Amino acid sequence: MLSTKHLYISSKKINIYHLLILFVLFTSKISAQNDTIFFDSNWKKSNKEAAIYYRIKPIKIKTKSAVGYKIVNTDSLYVINDYYLKSNKIQFQGYSKDSEGEYLVGNAKWYDENDNKSDTREFNYKPNNNASGFKIPQWPILYLGYSIATKSQFTGGLEFCLDCKEENKLFLGLGYGITSYDGKYYGLPDIHLSYNIQKSIFIKAGGSDKSAYALAGLTFLNMIDLGFGYSAPFDKEKTPVIKGFTFGITFRFTNNKNVYGRLRMF
């Protein structure tokens, strides 16, 4: 027969086990909440009360395991799974280079609230097998620009996206501009390089046969570049003289969706 002392010890052990179980359950619940990201109807992050969708915190897996092939400078991808909060049914499945799900890779699937597939798309990043390593630039982009230094100048032409698969874009532009000086109109060739960083800022350098210029500023998804810089003439005695602080704006028009900064598709 168990003594009172033994019963007390056994009861104490049971209470400790209960406390441990409660602690594990509590910490698991806290961890699960921290690993869940909630979104409102416009896919803006929100609290649970205002949410329509939610995402389990993305984990990373090897790129080849995810999409079946290697991607240069990308060893792993995020697994993106989104759900309808009301029903807990899947809304999106895919892989992304970033944890926000903006730069999708491989096969992406969207589902409606009835569990039916509503859309699917392949984001292909397979490497170019060109042995020389040379890549043909993406299809040209029509660009239109306006700048003003000492005089206004309108420019138009074609740009080539030298590596549009990357998040940062490098554009090579070739065009022609028109300006007036002392009552006469002059035609000016234009060549430039524009480096657009994460669809937010850009750095641009270019020139004509009369002057060179550099600009930096903001870009709206690479569709519109708005910047400020400086122009310097090659010959101050030969008209037109384009010199001084310069304001410039550029518009891009293309059917190549990789040119523009990609917004998450839903």
Question: First CA to last CA: what distance?
Answer: 69 Å
Shape call:
elongated
Total strand count, please?
Answer: 16
SSE-based structural type = mainly beta
Uncertain regions spanning at least 5 consecutive residues: 26-33, 128-133
Largest sheet: 8 strands, antiparallel
Overall residue-averaged pLDDT value: 82
CATH architecture of the largest domain: Beta Barrel
The CATH topology of the largest domain is what?
Answer: Porin
Name of the level-1 CATH class of the largest domain:
Mainly Beta
Number of domains: 3
Strand content: over 45%
Order of helices and strands: HEEEEHEEEEEEEEEEEE
User: How many separate helices?
Assistant: 2
Query: What share of residues is helical?
Result: 10-25%
* CA-atom Rg in angstroms: 29 Å
Describe this structure in words.
It is built from two helices and 16 strands. The chain is mostly beta strands and 266 residues long. The chain has three domains: 33 residues; 89 residues, Nuclear Transport Factor 2, Chain: A (Roll); 113 residues, Porin. Strands 1, 2, 3, 4, 5, 6, 7 and 8 form an eight-stranded antiparallel beta sheet that branches. The chain has an eight-stranded antiparallel barrel with strand order 9-10-11-12-13-14-15-16. A hairpin with a 2-residue loop joins β11 and β12.
In short:
The protein is 14% helix and 48% strand.
Keywords:
single chain; 266 residues; mainly beta; Porin; eight-stranded antiparallel barrel
Topology at a glance:
Blueprint lengths: L3 H31 L1 E4 L5 E2 L6 E4 L2 E4 H5 L8 E9 L5 E7 L7 E8 L5 E7 L17 E8 L3 E10 L7 E13 L2 E14 L3 E7 L3 E10 L3 E10 L10 E10 L13
Antiparallel strand pairs: 1-2, 1-3, 3-5, 4-5, 5-6, 6-7, 7-8, 9-10, 9-16, 10-11, 11-12, 12-13, 13-14, 14-15, 15-16
